[in-house]
Protein backbone atom coordinates (compact mmCIF):
# COMPACT_ATOMS: atom_id res chain seq x y z
CA UNK A 1 0.00 0.00 0.00
CA UNK A 2 2.88 2.38 0.85
CA UNK A 3 4.35 1.79 -2.63
CA UNK A 4 1.02 2.75 -4.25
CA UNK A 5 0.80 5.97 -2.23
CA UNK A 6 4.40 6.80 -3.08
CA UNK A 7 3.60 6.29 -6.76
CA UNK A 8 0.64 8.67 -6.54
CA UNK A 9 2.82 11.30 -4.87
CA UNK A 10 5.44 11.04 -7.57
CA UNK A 11 2.78 11.16 -10.27
CA UNK A 12 1.38 14.42 -8.91
CA UNK A 13 4.89 15.86 -8.62
CA UNK A 14 5.53 14.94 -12.23
CA UNK A 15 2.33 16.70 -13.34
CA UNK A 16 3.34 19.87 -11.51
CA UNK A 17 6.74 19.82 -13.14
CA UNK A 18 5.19 19.24 -16.54
CA UNK A 19 2.88 22.22 -16.02
CA UNK A 20 5.97 24.36 -15.65
CA UNK A 21 7.33 23.07 -18.95
CA UNK A 22 4.38 24.14 -21.00
CA UNK A 23 0.71 23.73 -21.74
CA UNK A 24 1.25 21.69 -24.90
CA UNK A 25 3.33 19.07 -23.15
CA UNK A 26 0.81 18.81 -20.31
CA UNK A 27 -2.05 18.42 -22.78
CA UNK A 28 -0.17 15.64 -24.57
CA UNK A 29 0.71 13.75 -21.38
CA UNK A 30 -2.76 14.05 -19.86
CA UNK A 31 -4.42 12.96 -23.08
CA UNK A 32 -2.24 9.90 -23.34
CA UNK A 33 -1.92 8.78 -19.71
CA UNK A 34 -4.79 10.34 -17.73
CA UNK A 35 -7.16 7.39 -18.24
CA UNK A 36 -4.55 5.01 -16.82
CA UNK A 37 -3.96 7.30 -13.87
CA UNK A 38 -7.71 7.48 -13.14
CA UNK A 39 -8.09 3.70 -13.42
CA UNK A 40 -5.30 3.28 -10.90
CA UNK A 41 -7.01 5.66 -8.47
CA UNK A 42 -10.34 3.81 -8.88
CA UNK A 43 -8.70 0.49 -8.02
CA UNK A 44 -6.84 1.99 -5.08
CA UNK A 45 -9.87 3.65 -3.45
CA UNK A 46 -11.51 0.43 -2.15
CA UNK A 47 -8.22 -0.73 -0.64
CA UNK A 48 -7.44 2.56 1.12
CA UNK A 49 -10.08 4.92 2.46
CA UNK A 50 -13.13 2.63 2.08
CA UNK A 51 -11.38 -0.50 3.34
CA UNK A 52 -10.42 1.28 6.55
CA UNK A 53 -14.14 1.72 7.36
CA UNK A 54 -14.95 -2.00 7.03
CA UNK A 55 -15.27 -3.70 10.40
CA UNK A 56 -12.91 -6.69 10.60
CA UNK A 57 -14.58 -10.12 10.87
CA UNK A 58 -14.99 -11.15 14.47
CA UNK A 59 -13.11 -14.26 15.62
CA UNK A 60 -15.84 -16.11 17.49
CA UNK A 61 -13.49 -18.51 19.25
CA UNK A 62 -11.41 -15.65 20.66
CA UNK A 63 -14.59 -13.79 21.64
CA UNK A 64 -15.87 -16.84 23.50
CA UNK A 65 -12.53 -17.32 25.25
CA UNK A 66 -12.33 -13.67 26.27
CA UNK A 67 -15.91 -13.74 27.59
CA UNK A 68 -15.35 -17.00 29.40
CA UNK A 69 -18.51 -18.76 28.24
CA UNK A 70 -20.43 -19.75 25.11
CA UNK A 71 -23.76 -18.07 24.32
CA UNK A 72 -26.05 -20.64 22.71
CA UNK A 73 -29.53 -20.02 21.31
CA UNK A 74 -32.07 -22.77 22.05
CA UNK A 75 -35.84 -23.23 21.96
CA UNK A 76 -38.23 -21.78 24.49
CA UNK A 77 -38.97 -25.30 25.66
CA UNK A 78 -39.16 -28.49 23.61
CA UNK A 79 -38.73 -31.77 25.46
CA UNK A 80 -35.92 -33.87 24.08
CA UNK A 81 -34.25 -30.90 22.42
CA UNK A 82 -33.98 -27.99 24.85
CA UNK A 83 -36.05 -27.50 27.97
CA UNK A 84 -35.52 -26.66 31.64
CA UNK A 85 -35.92 -29.50 34.14
CA UNK A 86 -37.20 -29.33 37.72
CA UNK A 87 -33.74 -28.34 38.97
CA UNK A 88 -33.52 -25.40 36.60
CA UNK A 89 -31.01 -27.11 34.30
CA UNK A 90 -31.27 -27.11 30.52
CA UNK A 91 -31.54 -30.57 29.01
CA UNK A 92 -32.07 -32.01 25.53
CA UNK A 93 -30.05 -33.01 22.50
CA UNK A 94 -29.62 -29.37 21.41
CA UNK A 95 -28.64 -28.27 24.92
CA UNK A 96 -26.07 -31.07 25.13
CA UNK A 97 -24.65 -30.08 21.75
CA UNK A 98 -24.17 -26.55 23.10
CA UNK A 99 -22.29 -28.08 26.03
CA UNK A 100 -20.12 -30.12 23.68
CA UNK A 101 -19.09 -26.96 21.80
CA UNK A 102 -18.40 -25.23 25.12
CA UNK A 103 -16.08 -28.10 26.04
CA UNK A 104 -14.32 -27.81 22.68
CA UNK A 105 -13.78 -24.07 23.05
CA UNK A 106 -13.29 -23.72 26.81
CA UNK A 107 -12.79 -27.21 28.22
CA UNK A 108 -15.83 -27.07 30.51
CA UNK A 109 -19.42 -28.07 29.74
CA UNK A 110 -20.71 -25.67 32.40
CA UNK A 111 -19.36 -22.62 30.57
CA UNK A 112 -22.43 -22.00 28.42
CA UNK A 113 -25.25 -19.50 28.67
CA UNK A 114 -28.54 -20.65 27.15
CA UNK A 115 -30.72 -18.05 25.42
CA UNK A 116 -34.30 -19.23 24.73
CA UNK A 117 -35.47 -17.88 21.36
CA UNK A 118 -38.72 -17.89 19.42
CA UNK A 119 -38.82 -19.09 15.83
CA UNK A 120 -39.19 -15.46 14.80
CA UNK A 121 -36.09 -14.22 16.63
CA UNK A 122 -33.68 -17.15 16.28
CA UNK A 123 -31.91 -16.10 13.07
CA UNK A 124 -31.79 -12.40 13.97
CA UNK A 125 -30.12 -13.23 17.28
CA UNK A 126 -27.38 -15.11 15.44
CA UNK A 127 -26.96 -12.51 12.70
CA UNK A 128 -26.63 -9.68 15.23
CA UNK A 129 -24.01 -11.49 17.30
CA UNK A 130 -26.28 -11.85 20.33
CA UNK A 131 -25.48 -15.57 20.32
CA UNK A 132 -22.42 -17.52 19.16
CA UNK A 133 -24.31 -20.61 18.06
CA UNK A 134 -27.91 -21.55 17.29
CA UNK A 135 -28.91 -25.09 18.31
CA UNK A 136 -32.68 -24.88 18.17
CA UNK A 137 -34.30 -27.76 16.26
CA UNK A 138 -33.84 -25.76 13.04
CA UNK A 139 -34.39 -27.26 9.58
CA UNK A 140 -31.59 -26.93 7.04
CA UNK A 141 -33.01 -25.57 3.76
CA UNK A 142 -31.50 -23.99 0.65
CA UNK A 143 -33.09 -20.58 1.22
CA UNK A 144 -31.91 -20.40 4.82
CA UNK A 145 -28.44 -21.55 3.86
CA UNK A 146 -28.07 -19.07 1.00
CA UNK A 147 -29.89 -15.87 1.94
CA UNK A 148 -29.39 -15.21 5.66
CA UNK A 149 -25.62 -14.92 5.90
CA UNK A 150 -25.64 -18.11 7.98
CA UNK A 151 -24.23 -21.63 7.63
CA UNK A 152 -25.53 -24.98 8.83
CA UNK A 153 -22.79 -27.04 10.44
CA UNK A 154 -24.40 -30.39 9.69
CA UNK A 155 -27.35 -32.52 10.78
CA UNK A 156 -27.75 -33.30 14.46
CA UNK A 157 -31.09 -35.04 14.02
CA UNK A 158 -32.88 -36.28 10.90
CA UNK A 159 -36.59 -35.68 11.34
CA UNK A 160 -39.75 -35.36 9.28
CA UNK A 161 -43.03 -33.53 9.76
CA UNK A 162 -46.01 -35.40 11.12
CA UNK A 163 -49.40 -34.89 12.78
CA UNK A 164 -50.88 -35.66 16.15
CA UNK A 165 -54.66 -36.00 16.25
CA UNK A 166 -57.42 -36.70 18.68
CA UNK A 167 -58.77 -40.16 18.21
CA UNK A 168 -61.93 -38.63 16.77
CA UNK A 169 -62.53 -35.39 14.87
CA UNK A 170 -64.95 -33.21 16.79
CA UNK A 171 -68.60 -33.48 15.69
CA UNK A 172 -67.69 -36.64 13.78
CA UNK A 173 -67.79 -40.35 14.42
CA UNK A 174 -64.85 -40.90 12.06
CA UNK A 175 -61.66 -42.22 13.65
CA UNK A 176 -58.60 -40.46 12.24
CA UNK A 177 -56.06 -43.02 11.07
CA UNK A 178 -54.35 -41.16 8.23
CA UNK A 179 -53.76 -37.66 6.91
CA UNK A 180 -56.51 -38.22 4.34
CA UNK A 181 -58.99 -38.23 7.23
CA UNK A 182 -57.99 -34.62 7.98
CA UNK A 183 -59.77 -33.29 4.89
CA UNK A 184 -61.52 -30.11 6.07
CA UNK A 185 -59.77 -30.13 9.45
CA UNK A 186 -58.38 -27.20 11.43
CA UNK A 187 -54.65 -27.57 12.03
CA UNK A 188 -52.55 -25.78 14.64
CA UNK A 189 -48.84 -25.19 14.13
CA UNK A 190 -45.98 -22.77 14.79
CA UNK A 191 -45.55 -19.51 12.89
CA UNK A 192 -42.38 -18.77 10.95
CA UNK A 193 -41.39 -22.39 10.31
CA UNK A 194 -41.21 -24.71 7.32
CA UNK A 195 -44.21 -26.53 8.80
CA UNK A 196 -46.76 -24.14 7.27
CA UNK A 197 -45.31 -24.51 3.79
CA UNK A 198 -45.13 -28.29 4.06
CA UNK A 199 -48.79 -28.49 5.06
CA UNK A 200 -49.79 -26.26 2.15
CA UNK A 201 -47.76 -28.31 -0.32
CA UNK A 202 -49.03 -31.66 0.91
CA UNK A 203 -52.70 -30.77 1.18
CA UNK A 204 -52.71 -29.04 -2.20
CA UNK A 205 -50.99 -31.95 -3.96
CA UNK A 206 -53.47 -34.41 -2.38
CA UNK A 207 -56.52 -32.21 -3.05
CA UNK A 208 -57.34 -31.87 0.65
CA UNK A 209 -58.95 -28.84 2.27
CA UNK A 210 -57.85 -27.44 5.62
CA UNK A 211 -57.68 -24.36 7.82
CA UNK A 212 -54.56 -23.38 9.70
CA UNK A 213 -54.00 -21.44 12.92
CA UNK A 214 -50.42 -20.41 13.75
CA UNK A 215 -48.85 -19.46 17.06
CA UNK A 216 -45.58 -17.80 18.02
CA UNK A 217 -44.83 -20.35 20.76
CA UNK A 218 -45.15 -24.12 20.61
CA UNK A 219 -46.85 -24.27 24.00
CA UNK A 220 -49.59 -21.95 22.75
CA UNK A 221 -50.20 -24.10 19.67
CA UNK A 222 -50.35 -27.29 21.73
CA UNK A 223 -52.73 -25.72 24.24
CA UNK A 224 -55.03 -24.60 21.42
CA UNK A 225 -55.02 -28.13 20.04
CA UNK A 226 -55.60 -29.72 23.45
CA UNK A 227 -58.52 -27.40 24.26
CA UNK A 228 -60.29 -28.14 20.99
CA UNK A 229 -59.53 -25.12 18.81
CA UNK A 230 -57.86 -27.44 16.32
CA UNK A 231 -58.37 -30.99 15.11
CA UNK A 232 -54.66 -31.66 14.67
CA UNK A 233 -51.27 -30.27 15.58
CA UNK A 234 -48.33 -30.55 13.19
CA UNK A 235 -44.60 -30.23 13.70
CA UNK A 236 -41.48 -32.40 13.39
CA UNK A 237 -42.20 -35.95 14.58
CA UNK A 238 -39.76 -35.85 17.48
CA UNK A 239 -41.48 -32.66 18.59
CA UNK A 240 -44.83 -34.44 18.53
CA UNK A 241 -43.57 -37.05 21.00
CA UNK A 242 -42.33 -34.22 23.20
CA UNK A 243 -45.52 -32.17 23.02
CA UNK A 244 -47.71 -35.19 23.71
CA UNK A 245 -46.30 -35.19 27.25
CA UNK A 246 -48.10 -31.88 27.87
CA UNK A 247 -51.57 -33.13 26.93
CA UNK A 248 -54.21 -33.76 29.56
CA UNK A 249 -55.04 -37.27 28.36
CA UNK A 250 -52.12 -38.67 26.37
CA UNK A 251 -53.99 -41.89 25.57
CA UNK A 252 -56.63 -39.92 23.65
CA UNK A 253 -54.11 -38.74 21.04
CA UNK A 254 -52.40 -40.55 18.19
CA UNK A 255 -49.29 -39.62 16.22
CA UNK A 256 -50.03 -40.58 12.63
CA UNK A 257 -47.49 -42.85 10.98
CA UNK A 258 -47.13 -40.71 7.84
CA UNK A 259 -44.28 -38.26 7.33
CA UNK A 260 -44.79 -35.43 4.83
CA UNK A 261 -41.35 -33.82 4.68
CA UNK A 262 -37.62 -34.08 5.26
CA UNK A 263 -36.52 -32.06 8.29
CA UNK A 264 -32.74 -32.24 8.78
CA UNK A 265 -32.23 -30.35 12.04
CA UNK A 266 -28.82 -28.91 12.77
CA UNK A 267 -26.70 -26.23 14.46
CA UNK A 268 -26.27 -22.87 12.72
CA UNK A 269 -23.39 -20.37 12.75
CA UNK A 270 -22.59 -17.08 11.03
CA UNK A 271 -20.93 -17.16 7.63
CA UNK A 272 -17.38 -15.89 7.27
CA UNK A 273 -15.73 -17.26 10.41
CA UNK A 274 -14.30 -20.43 8.90
CA UNK A 275 -12.45 -21.62 11.98
CA UNK A 276 -15.53 -21.35 14.20
CA UNK A 277 -17.56 -23.17 11.56
CA UNK A 278 -14.97 -25.94 11.56
CA UNK A 279 -15.05 -26.19 15.35
CA UNK A 280 -18.84 -26.55 15.48
CA UNK A 281 -18.93 -28.91 12.49
CA UNK A 282 -16.16 -31.18 13.79
CA UNK A 283 -17.68 -31.23 17.25
CA UNK A 284 -20.71 -32.87 15.63
CA UNK A 285 -18.48 -35.23 13.66
CA UNK A 286 -16.58 -36.10 16.84
CA UNK A 287 -19.78 -37.25 18.57
CA UNK A 288 -20.66 -39.51 15.63
CA UNK A 289 -17.14 -40.89 15.14
CA UNK A 290 -16.84 -41.65 18.84
CA UNK A 291 -19.99 -43.77 18.76
CA UNK A 292 -18.80 -45.58 15.64
CA UNK A 293 -15.46 -46.36 17.29
CA UNK A 294 -17.10 -47.53 20.50
CA UNK A 295 -15.76 -44.66 22.60
CA UNK A 296 -18.35 -43.49 25.11
CA UNK A 297 -18.71 -41.57 28.34
CA UNK A 298 -18.11 -44.69 30.44
CA UNK A 299 -14.96 -46.04 28.79
CA UNK A 300 -13.18 -43.00 27.36
CA UNK A 301 -10.95 -42.56 30.42
CA UNK A 302 -9.60 -46.09 29.95
CA UNK A 303 -8.64 -45.55 26.30
CA UNK A 304 -5.18 -44.18 27.02
CA UNK A 305 -3.47 -47.49 26.24
CA UNK A 306 -5.34 -48.18 23.00
CA UNK A 307 -3.24 -49.12 19.99
CA UNK A 308 -6.03 -48.33 17.52
CA UNK A 309 -4.75 -45.39 15.41
CA UNK A 310 -8.14 -43.84 14.64
CA UNK A 311 -9.05 -43.76 18.34
CA UNK A 312 -5.64 -42.30 19.19
CA UNK A 313 -6.19 -39.50 16.66
CA UNK A 314 -9.77 -38.89 17.80
CA UNK A 315 -8.83 -38.53 21.46
CA UNK A 316 -5.71 -36.48 20.77
CA UNK A 317 -3.04 -39.01 21.70
CA UNK A 318 -1.44 -38.54 18.28
CA UNK A 319 -1.80 -36.33 15.23
CA UNK A 320 -2.17 -32.94 16.93
CA UNK A 321 -5.53 -32.39 15.22
CA UNK A 322 -6.87 -30.05 17.88
CA UNK A 323 -4.12 -27.54 17.14
CA UNK A 324 -5.39 -27.19 13.58
CA UNK A 325 -8.61 -25.72 15.01
CA UNK A 326 -6.95 -23.61 17.68
CA UNK A 327 -8.08 -26.08 20.36
CA UNK A 328 -6.43 -28.37 22.89
CA UNK A 329 -5.47 -31.72 21.40
CA UNK A 330 -7.61 -33.55 23.97
CA UNK A 331 -10.75 -31.57 23.10
CA UNK A 332 -12.66 -34.63 21.85
CA UNK A 333 -11.59 -36.66 24.88
CA UNK A 334 -13.02 -33.95 27.11
CA UNK A 335 -16.27 -33.77 25.10
CA UNK A 336 -16.87 -37.51 25.40
CA UNK A 337 -15.90 -37.54 29.08
CA UNK A 338 -18.11 -34.59 30.05
CA UNK A 339 -21.03 -34.88 27.59
CA UNK A 340 -20.82 -38.27 25.87
CA UNK A 341 -20.91 -39.51 22.28
CA UNK A 342 -23.91 -39.28 19.94
CA UNK A 343 -25.48 -42.47 21.32
CA UNK A 344 -25.12 -41.23 24.92
CA UNK A 345 -26.74 -37.90 24.08
CA UNK A 346 -29.56 -39.40 22.00
CA UNK A 347 -30.60 -42.09 24.47
CA UNK A 348 -30.46 -39.70 27.42
CA UNK A 349 -32.67 -37.08 25.80
CA UNK A 350 -34.81 -38.79 23.16
CA UNK A 351 -34.36 -42.53 23.40
CA UNK A 352 -34.69 -45.36 25.90
CA UNK A 353 -33.49 -43.38 28.92
CA UNK A 354 -35.97 -40.55 28.30
CA UNK A 355 -39.71 -40.20 28.69
CA UNK A 356 -40.09 -39.87 24.93
CA UNK A 357 -38.77 -43.32 23.93
CA UNK A 358 -38.17 -42.17 20.34
CA UNK A 359 -36.73 -44.86 18.07
CA UNK A 360 -33.49 -43.78 16.41
CA UNK A 361 -34.71 -44.78 12.95
CA UNK A 362 -32.56 -43.15 10.27
CA UNK A 363 -30.49 -41.53 13.02
CA UNK A 364 -28.72 -44.86 13.52
CA UNK A 365 -25.13 -45.11 12.36
CA UNK A 366 -24.58 -45.98 8.71
CA UNK A 367 -23.12 -49.29 9.90
CA UNK A 368 -26.42 -50.12 11.62
CA UNK A 369 -28.88 -49.32 8.85
CA UNK A 370 -29.15 -45.58 9.45
CA UNK A 371 -27.74 -42.59 7.57
CA UNK A 372 -25.59 -41.08 10.35
CA UNK A 373 -22.09 -40.70 8.91
CA UNK A 374 -19.10 -38.49 9.65
CA UNK A 375 -15.77 -37.83 7.88
CA UNK A 376 -12.68 -39.39 9.48
CA UNK A 377 -10.31 -37.68 11.89
CA UNK A 378 -7.03 -37.48 10.00
TrEMBL record:
GO terms, biological process: amino acid transport
Keywords (A to Z) from UniProt: Membrane, Signal, Transmembrane, Transmembrane helix, Transport
Source species of the chain: Candidatus Berkiella cookevillensis
PANTHER family given in the database record: AMINO ACID ABC TRANSPORTER PERMEASE, AMINO-ACID ABC TRANSPORTER-BINDING PROTEIN YHDW-RELATED
Gene for this chain: aapJ
Annotated TM spans: 25-45
Similarity field: Belongs to the bacterial solute-binding protein 3 family.
Lineage: Bacteria, Pseudomonadati, Pseudomonadota, Gammaproteobacteria, Candidatus Berkiellales
SUPFAM superfamilies (UniProt xref): Periplasmic binding protein-like II
A family per Pfam: SBP_bac_3
Protein name: Amino acid ABC transporter substrate-binding protein
Domain (Solute-binding protein family 3/N-terminal): residue spans on this chain: 69-303
Amino acid sequence: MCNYLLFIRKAFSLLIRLMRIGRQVVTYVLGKYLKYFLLLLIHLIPTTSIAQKVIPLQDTLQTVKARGYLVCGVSQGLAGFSTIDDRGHWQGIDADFCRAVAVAALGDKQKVKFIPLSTKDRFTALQSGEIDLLARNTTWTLSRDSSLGLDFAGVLYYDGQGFIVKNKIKNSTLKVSSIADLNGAIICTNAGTTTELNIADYFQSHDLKYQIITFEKSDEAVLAYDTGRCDAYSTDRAGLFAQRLQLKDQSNHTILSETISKEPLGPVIRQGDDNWSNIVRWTLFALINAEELGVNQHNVSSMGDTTQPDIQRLLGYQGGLGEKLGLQNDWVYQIILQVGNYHDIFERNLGTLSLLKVDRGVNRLWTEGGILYAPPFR
